[in-house]
From TrEMBL:
InterPro entries in alphabetical order: Metallo-B-lactamas (IPR001279), NDM-1-like (IPR050855), RibonucZ/Hydroxyglut_hydro (IPR036866)
CDD domains noted in UniProt: yflN-like_MBL-fold
SMART domains assigned: Lactamase_B
Superkingdom assignment: Bacteria
Name listed for the protein in its UniProt record: MBL fold metallo-hydrolase
Metallo-beta-lactamase domain span: 15-203
Species the sequence originates in: Amycolatopsis acididurans
Record-linked Gene3D superfamilies: Ribonuclease Z/Hydroxyacylglutathione hydrolase-like
Amino acid sequence: MNLAPGVRCVATTRRDNAFLLDGDDGYTLVDVGWASAPRRIEDELGSLGDIRRIVLTHAHPDHVKGAAELVARTGARLFIHEADAPWLAAGRVPSAGRSGVAGRLLDRIPLLHWAPVTADVLLRDGDRVEGAGGLRVIHTPGHTPGHIALHYAPGNTVLVGDAVFNRGAGLSTGPAALAADPAQRPSSLARLPRDVAAVGLAHGDALRGEDLARYHALLERMKTEPPVNGSP
Ligand SMILES: [Zn+2]
Ligand SMILES: [Zn+2]
C-alpha cells in the first residue's frame, strides 16, 4: 500500500508492517520483521535487489529476526541507534531489557532470539540517513534504550516503530512490562512531529486523513500521563 509519496507499507504478517522508502539509489527498508518477512518483502517488490539500506527502529525480534538473511541477500547497509546495537549483535534482548517480569520471561524463549548481526552505521538523535532521500532520526527511548522514530521528508511521514501501537482499543504506547523503561515514553512521544501527512506504525493500520486526529489525541494525552513505575 502506498501510504504517502515515496512511502510504501508492506504487511509482513497480518498485524506487522515494514516500510519501503524511495531513496537516491534504491529503497530504504524500515524494520524487517520476523524470519518470514524477507519472503513477504520479496513478493511485494518482485526482487530484493533494489534495497540499499535497512534501518531498524529497535532491536526486538519482531523487527530484526529477518535482518541477517536480508543483509546477506542484498548487501544492504544496516543502521540502528547506538544504544540498541549491542542487543542486535547479541541476538537477543538482555535479561534486564524489559521492565516487567512477563517481558523478561518472554525473552528467554529461543523462538524470540535471532541470528546476531552487526550494524554498519550507528545512529544518534538528529542524524540524517545518508542516501535515504531525507530521512531524519528521532531518538524515542523507553520501549528500548535505542528506539527511534523516523521522519521522511518527501512524504512528510513519521514512522513510529513501537512508540505507538494501533490495535485493540485504539492507539496506545503498548504494555509497560514489554518496555525497557516505560517512564521515558511520555517525553519521547513529545518529541514526535505532530503536523505530518501520515503515521506508519509497526503494529496496526497506518494513520492518515481523519485518522490523524487519533494520533494528535494520543500526543495530547501523553502530556498529562502520570509517571509509570515500570511494573506490569
Ligand atoms: Zn518492540
Ligand atoms: Zn514490535
